[in-house]
Amino acid sequence: MSLNAENVSWTRGGSLVVDDVTLRPSPGDTVGLLGPNGSGKSSLLRLMHGIVKPSSGAVLLDGEPLASVPRRRIARTVAVVSQHADTDTDIRVEDVVRLGRIPHRGAWGGDAVADDAAVTEALEQTGLQHKADQLWHTLSGGERQRAQIARALAQQPSELLLDEPTNHLDIRHQLELLSLVTRLPLTSVVALHDLNLAAMFCDQLVVLHQGAVVAGGAPDEVLTPELIARVYQVEAEVRHDPARGRVEVTFEPRAELAVPRRDGEVCGPRRTDSSPVISR
C-alpha cells in the first residue's frame, strides 16, 4: 500500500495554501511535516485524506487517484488522528475504539469476531486495555490521544496521518505518543511543531513554508541553522550527536525581544550552553 501526493496544489478563498507539493513516504517510515503556523501542514494532510480535492496534481492510493477510490476503501486504508477530539456524550474508551470498525461493516453488519479482535489488539497496542470501560471525559489529554490512535488502529490501516497530535500534551505524554507511533507497523505522516521531537522520532522530514516544500530528507540533512532562520525567523544552533544518532536544536532569543529590567539589566535567557534534551 502507498499514499502519495504528486505535485498537489490547493487554492482556498483565492489564496494558494498548498503549492506544488510532492510527498512519497517510504513504506513503514515516519515522516514529519514541519513548518510554522499557516505553512500548509494541516491542509496537506486534508488533501492526502481526500477531505478536500486538490486544485491541481493528484493524491494517489496505490497509484490510483484518490478521487476515484471508494470512500469505504479509503477509510479502511487511511486513518487520521486530529489535533484534539472531544464529545459531550458519556462514551466508554472501548466504544471510541470500536468506531474504527465502521469501515469494515457491510450491509448486513460486520464480523463480530474480527471486530472484537481488532479492538482488543488496538487497546493493547496503546496500553489502554485496563481503561476500556472508563468514560471518555475522565481521561487525561494524553490518554484521549492514545484512545484516538487506538480507534485509528482498529481500522487496520496501512497509512496513518496525524495532525499535530502532541499539542496540549506535557513532555512525558508527547514522548510516549510519538514513541508509540514510531513502533507501529504503519507508514505515518505527522505534522509537528517541535523540531527536537521531529529529529528524535522521524525517519524523514519535509519542511513547508508558505505552502511549498523548501527542504526534505533525513533530520540531520534538513535541520540546519540556515533553514531554521529562513522558515522560522529565529536563530538556532544545530548540533550533531553521533552517540544518539540524531541532531539537537537550541534556540537563541532575538535581541529586540529582550525586556529591560528596572535595574537596567536585560531580562531574557543568555545561556550559551545547550538546553538538556531527552533522548529516546
Question: What can you see in these coordinates?
Answer:
- By secondary structure, the chain is an alpha/beta fold.
- The protein has a single domain (3-231), classed as P-loop containing nucleotide triphosphate hydrolases (Rossmann fold, 3-Layer(aba) Sandwich), CATH 3.40.50.
- 29% of the residues lie in helices and 27% in strands.
- The protein is built from 9 helices and 14 strands.
- It has helices at residues 41-49, 71-77, 93-98, 112-125, 141-154, 171-183, 195-201, 219-222, 225-232; strands at residues 3-12, 15-23, 30-34, 56-61, 64-65, 78-81, 159-163, 187-191, 204-209, 212-217, 235-241, 246-252, 259-260, 266-267.
- It has a 6-stranded mixed β-sheet, sandwiched between helices.
- Strand 13 and strand 14 form a beta hairpin.
- Helix 4 (112-125) packs antiparallel against helix 5 (141-154) and helix 5 (141-154) runs parallel beside helix 6 (171-183).
- It comes from Nesterenkonia aethiopica.
Indicate the topology.
Blueprint: E1 3-12, E2 15-23, E3 30-34, H1 41-49, E4 56-61, E5 64-65, H2 71-77, E6 78-81, H3 93-98, H4 112-125, H5 141-154, E7 159-163, H6 171-183, E8 187-191, H7 195-201, E9 204-209, E10 212-217, H8 219-222, H9 225-232, E11 235-241, E12 246-252, E13 259-260, E14 266-267
Parallel strand pairs: 3-8, 3-9, 6-7, 7-8
Antiparallel strand pairs: 1-2, 1-4, 4-5, 9-10, 11-12, 13-14
Helix pairs in contact: 4-5, 5-6
Organism: Nesterenkonia aethiopica
Pfam families: ABC_tran (PF00005)
Protein name: ABC transporter ATP-binding protein
